[in-house]
């Protein structure tokens, strides 16, 4: 298994494009993306747990209820959420997409991201659809991912190549998300494609399981968005025997899927709104998996710890504090904490108490752009990883005038 380039176009049979159609007023950024498979696909998705959900989620659920889809249409600049005509506009977007591609409107996955509570004008989308479809190409993944960005500062793509029964298969994905990202199932918008043959049932099973250890372990700011959607399309063009049950092929597919999703998690964490550092919290020695995950998420969500990491302050007491209020019964006198980066690692807590360490060395380690918070609970064999970022002045600046 190896990481490759290509994002959502890495797999056979997928093309993509992204354009500026004018949804985002006073912007020159692209705002409309399209991903299409040459042949029909099996499809699966998971969505936000927020009770307030964008209209695109309801329409996507309707469209892939049969486990099938062939294209993905996404706009940025407007979430199409809390609008009386939201579902109507979402269905019209699907109809426009289907018409230009010669597909059934029910075979379209739709996503929207941007400001909540503002009506979405269908006119620029309608006017841009011909250009969008005409520009579809095998290397269009870069334009597509650019078109779904909002406050993102960099593109987020990942792809992997692996073999199933002697057939070369690929999985690729694109993501957007810098803010309003918080467990559980707060994935902003993520779209994954694969040329592996997988039944809709097993595709849903793999996706639902994977999100528990990937995007549900990601937190930027403690806010769960209204439009979060993670969808996957599998067109089977790799030619492997269809995966329709658990077994070795299913296990290998899920490993490849997780390689893509975990890479996207790291990239989203690194590009958190206003962030200067990606934080990865690794917990081991837990009594059970739930304990490991709960502790890792509690630490990565701590605003005090996030602020300390911004200041390169080895304030390990904030790690212990976050572990303490996580709600997991633990013997705190066994806990060990280390900070690590490209500059090395340093032990800051052992047996639940501080140890002598060099503040200068700690600061050198914490000034790096990728920081690892390593926690050994010494109370079992289970482990978990969570991702996040530091909390900076710029986060407040970005969100203070996001709408205006």
Model description:
The protein is of the alpha+beta class and 404 residues long. It folds into two domains: 2-270, L-amino peptidase D-ALA esterase/amidase, CATH 3.60.70.12; 278-400, ArgJ beta chain, C-terminal domain (Ubiquitin-like (UB roll), Roll). The chain is built from eleven helices and 15 strands. Strands 1, 2, 3, 4, 5, 6, 7, 8 and 9 form a nine-stranded mixed sheet that branches. It has a six-stranded mixed sheet with strand order 13-12-11-14-10-15. The mean pLDDT is 93.
In short:
With 404 residues, the chain is of the alpha+beta class. It has helices spanning 55-63, 86-101, 123-134, 141-147, 200-210, 248-270, 289-301, 303-310, 317-324, 359-366, 393-400, and strands spanning 2-3, 14-19, 32-47, 68-78, 108-115, 156-164, 167-176, 189-194, 229-234, 278-286, 336-341, 344-350, 353-354, 370-376, 382-389. Helix 1 packs across helix 2, helix 2 runs parallel beside helix 3 and helix 5 crosses helix 6.
